[in-house]
Amino acid sequence: MSEPLTYEGETIVVSLHGALILSAVVLRVGMKIGIHVLLTDKRAIADVVYVDPEQPRHCGINLEKPENIWGLCSPSDHWHGGDAERAL
Q: Residues 15-40: what's their mean pLDDT?
């Protein structure tokens, strides 16, 4: 059995369900990857669900279990995102 490979990457956009990441290596749709967020020391398993054809190191990932591994605070109930949201 071979050792798992470890590479660095950056998050571009995050959510409870996944992220858009910039990977140090080219990933493929369908790959299962482990994520370790150094800032929070949290880990998760994710599937690569999108690879940008023009920038193949930009990938969309879907967390197996939706959760906030990123350490971001949720906005308060009183926060409004802009005019479009208030118009609803």
A: 95
pLDDT of residue 88: 47
Rounded CA-CA distance 50/19 in Å is 10
User: Whole-angstrom Cα distance, residue 7 to residue 24?
Assistant: 6
* Short-list 15, 19, 28, 14, CA closest to 57: 28
What pTM value is reported for the model? 0.80
Scan for tokens 């490979």, then name that residue.
Answer: 5
The DSSP string of 35-82 is: EEETTTTEEEEEEEEEE-SSSTTEEEEEESS----S-PPPPPTT----
